[in-house]
Design a protein that fits this description.
21 helices, five-stranded parallel sheet, four-stranded antiparallel sheet, 606 residues, alpha/beta, 15 strands
C-alpha cells in the first residue's frame, strides 16, 4: 500500500469512528427542521412562539420518505394554524440541501414532513462500515459510565443447569452490547461460598464420606441434603486422598475439611464451564469476603436509619417501608386471617442464633458494588422465580442511603429442552438432568450461545437440540454464518479470476441505487442503533434477530444484483457493499462470541 493510499485509508477510518448513520440522519433532520421553523418565524410566515418538542423518526414504510417528522402536527396548537400550512412554511425556509444527507423534503397528508436521503448518504453507510471495520457498530452513548453486570452466579454446591446456560449467553451478550455502546462494563460472578447452602453442602459430603466406611444404613443422610451423584464423587475422592483418618473426627471438623477440599474444586468447575462457554468474568466475587465486617457495617446503617427491629431474638428488616416504592404489594390478603401486615412481610437479617441470612449478605454485596467499588449502575440477571426479591433489594439500597433506581434486575424465564418434538428431562447417557456441561458436549457452542439469546429475557425458550446441531438454514446461527462465508467465497473467487477490490478511497458507493442494494444499506445503517437499543432495553436478543435479518437482506441483494458481471465502477461499488455486509455480520457474531467462518460448504459461492 502506498503512503498516500494508507493515509487516505486512515483518514477515512477516523472519519467514521463511532459513527451511527441512522442517528446522524435523525439528528441532522431535526436540526434542519428546527432551524427552518425559526427562519419562518423570523420571516413572519409563522407566529413567533416557543417551538414545541417534536420528533424525527424512520417510518416503518420508507416509500414515502426515509425520515418523517411530526413538527407541524406537534406545533399546530401553539401556532394556531393547520399543520399542513405549518409544514409548507417550514419547507419554504429549508436551506439548500447540497452537502447534507438529503436529496429533497416534502409535505404529505395533513402535515407530515418527509425527507428523502441522497445517494451520497446511502454511500456513506457503505464507507462507514467498510472503513471502520471491526469498530463499526461502536458508539459512545454510554460515555464511559461504570456498569456492573452480574449473571449466572450459580450455587457452587453442584453443577450448572440449563437456566445457567441461558443466563450465561444473555448476561455476556448484554455486557457486550453495553461495551459497544460506550459503557465501562465489569462482568461479575458472585460465588455463594457462605451461609446455609455451604453448611448443607458440608453435611451432605460428610454423610457420604462416613457412609463409605460405615454403610448407608448406619449413617443417616440429612433430609435437606444434596442428593446428587456429584456429592458421592467428591466424598469418594476425598476418601481416596485422606483414607479413613476422618472417620473418628468430630463431625464439624470433618464437615469443614470436606468443604475446604470440595468447594475449590466446584468453583474451578464453574470457571472451567464458563470459559468453555466463552464467558470470561472480570470479577469472581467471594461472599465470604463480606463476613463479618461488611455485613455488620450494613446492619449498622440499617439500624441507624430505623430500618430494623428485634423480635424473637432475631434482627428484622422493615421490608415494606422501602419495597412498596418499587411495586411490592402492601395489601395482599391472607385468606380468612385477614390482611397481611407489614411485619408479616418483613425479612430476617440475623437469625436468633446470630448467623446472618443470605438477604443480609446480599444487601452488603450490593452496597459494595455501589459505595465501595463505585459502579453507577448494577444490572443483575436473575431467574424469574426471584421476581419477589426485586422490590425488596431495590428498597434495601434506599434504606442504606443509596439509590435503588440504580439497581436494575433482568428477570429471565425458564428453558425447556426439546428433542424429536418432545421435552427432554433426563440424559439417556447418564440418566440425570442435562446441565450446561453435558449440553455443550452435545451441541456446538455457537448454536448454544445464539439460540439461548434468540428471544427477549422475559420469554420462555424451547431449546431444540435437533435444531442446534443442524447444518442448514433451519439453524439460525448456521444461516447467519453461511451469509458471512458466502461473501468470503464470492470475493475469493473473484480475486482468483483477476477482479480485486481497489480500495475504499476509490470506490463510488453512490452508484448503489437498486432497491435490493438500498434495503441492504438501510439494514447496515441500523447496526449501531440496534446495539444501543439492546444496551438500553437490556435485550441482547435484538442482536441475534438483527443478524438474521441482515443475512436475509444480503441473500436478497446477491440474488438480485450481479457483482462479478457488472460494469467496472459498479462492480467495485457492489464489492464494497459485500465487504460492508461481511464486516457487520462478523461484528455482530463477534459481539456474541460466535465464530464467523470464511468457508462452510460448496454451495456458498454458487
Amino acid at each position: 500500500m502506498s503512503e498516500t493510499h494508507e493515509k487516505n485509508a486512515t483518514d477515512m477510518a477516523n472519519t467514521y469512528r463511532l459513527y451511527d448513520p441512522k442517528q446522524a440522519w435523525l439528528d441532522e433532520a431535526h436540526s434542519l427542521l428546527e432551524n427552518a421553523a425559526r427562519a419562518a418565524m423570523d420571516a413572519g410566515d409563522l407566529p413567533r412562539k416557543e417551538l414545541p418538542a417534536f420528533i424525527t423518526e424512520v417510518p416503518g414504510d420508507t416509500k414515502n420518505g426515509d425520515v418523517a417528522s411530526n413538527l407541524a402536527m406537534a406545533s399546530a396548537r401553539v401556532f394556531g394554524m393547520p399543520p399542513r400550512k405549518i409544514a409548507e412554511a417550514v419547507l419554504a425556509h429549508l436551506p439548500k440541501l447540497d452537502g447534507t444527507c438529503w436529496a429533497r423534503a416534502e409535505a404529505a397528508g395533513p402535515g407530515f414532513i418527509n425527507l428523502f436521503l441522497s445517494d451520497a448518504a446511502f454511500g456513506a453507510v457503505v464507507l462507514a462500515a467498510g472503513c471502520a471495520g471491526d469498530e463499526y457498530g461502536r458508539t459512545n452513548v454510554g460515555r464511559g459510565e461504570k456498569v456492573n453486570v452480574e449473571f449466572v452466579s450459580a450455587n457452587p454446591t453442584g453443577p450448572m443447569h440449563l437456566g445457567n446456560a441461558r443466563g450465561g449467553a444473555l448476561g455476556d451478550c448484554l455486557a457486550a452490547a453495553l461495551e459497544w455502546a460506550g459503557y465501562d462494563v465489569t462482568r461479575e460472578f458472585l460465588i455463594n461460598d457462605a451461609g446455609n447452602q455451604i453448611e448443607k453442602f458440608g453435611k451432605s459430603l460428610a454423610a457420604r464420606y462416613l457412609q463409605l466406611y460405615k454403610g448407608e444404613e448406619a449413617v443417616p443422610f440429612p433430609e435437606d441434603g444434596y442428593q446428587g451423584e456429584d456429592i458421592r464423587v467428591l466424598a469418594r475422592e476425598f476418601a481416596d486422598k485422606e483414607g479413613d483418618k476422618w472417620v473418628g473426627a468430630p463431625f464439624d471438623a470433618l464437615k469443614d475439611a470436606l468443604v475446604a477440599y470440595a468447594l475449590p474444586k466446584n468453583v474451578q468447575k464453574l470457571k472451567d464451564d464458563m470459559a468453555k462457554y466463552r464467558v470470561n468474568y472480570d470479577v469472581w466475587f467471594s461472599e465470604t469476603t463480606l463476613h463479618p465486617d461488611a455485613i455488620n457495617d450494613v446492619l449498622k446503617k440499617l439500624a441507624d436509619a430505623g430500618a430494623t427491629y428485634e423480635k424473637d431474638g432475631a434482627i428484622w428488616y422493615r421490608s415494606m417501608r422501602y419495597a412498596e416504592k418499587y411495586g411490592a404489594n402492601r395489601n395482599t390478603r391472607k385468606g380468612l386471617d385477614g390482611e397481611v401486615s407489614d411485619e408479616d412481610k418483613d425479612e430476617v437479617l440475623v437469625r436468633a442464633n446470630g448467623v446472618p441470612t443470605y438477604f443480609a449478605a446480599d444487601i452488603a454485596y450490593h452496597y459494595n458494588k455501589f459505595a465501595v467499588r463505585g459502579f453507577s449502575r448494577a444490572i443483575d440477571v436473575w431467574g424469574a422465580d426471584h421476581h419477589g426479591h426485586v422490590a425488596r433489594m431495590k428498597g434495601a439500597m434506599d434504606a442504606v442511603g443509596l439509590d435503588g433506581e440504580k439497581l436494575d434486575v433482568v428477570l429471565m424465564q425458564f428453558v425447556r429442552l426439546m428433542q424429536n418434538g418432545e421435552p427432554v428431562r433426563m440424559s439417556k447417557r447418564t440418566g440425570k438432568a442435562i446441565g450446561l456441561a453435558e449440553l455443550l458436549d452435545e451441541v456446538p457452542i455457537d448454536s448454544a450461545r445464539f439460540l439461548f439469546n434468540l428471544r427477549e429475557p422475559g420469554s420462555t425458550i424451547d431449546f431444540d437440540i435437533d435444531q442446534a446441531v443442524r447444518q442448514d438454514s433451519d439453524n439460525p446461527v448456521y444461516y447467519v454464518q453461511y451469509a458471512h462465508a458466502r461473501i468470503c467465497s464470492i470475493l475469493k473467487r473473484m480475486a482468483a479470476e483477476g477482479t480485486v477490490f481497489e480500495g475504499w478511497d476509490k470506490v463510488n458507493p453512490s452508484l448503489l441505487t437498486e432497491p435490493a442494494e438500498r434495503e441492504l444499506i438501510r439494514k447496515i445503517a441500523d447496526f449501531p442503533g440496534e446495539i444501543v437499543s439492546a444496551a438500553k432495553s437490556y435485550d441482547p436478543a435484538r442482536i441475534t434477530r438483527y443478524s438474521t435479518e441482515l443475512a436475509t437482506q444480503y441473500h436478497k441483494f446477491y440474488n438480485s444484483c450481479r457483482v462479478k458481471d457488472a460494469a467496472h465502477e459498479l462492480c467495485q461499488a457492489r464489492m464494497a457493499l459485500c465487504l460492508a455486509a461481511r464486516t457487520v455480520i462478523k461484528n455482530a457474531l463477534t459481539m456474541m462470541k460466535i465464530t464467523a467462518p470464511e468457508h462452510m460448504d460448496a454451495r456458498e459461492d454458487a
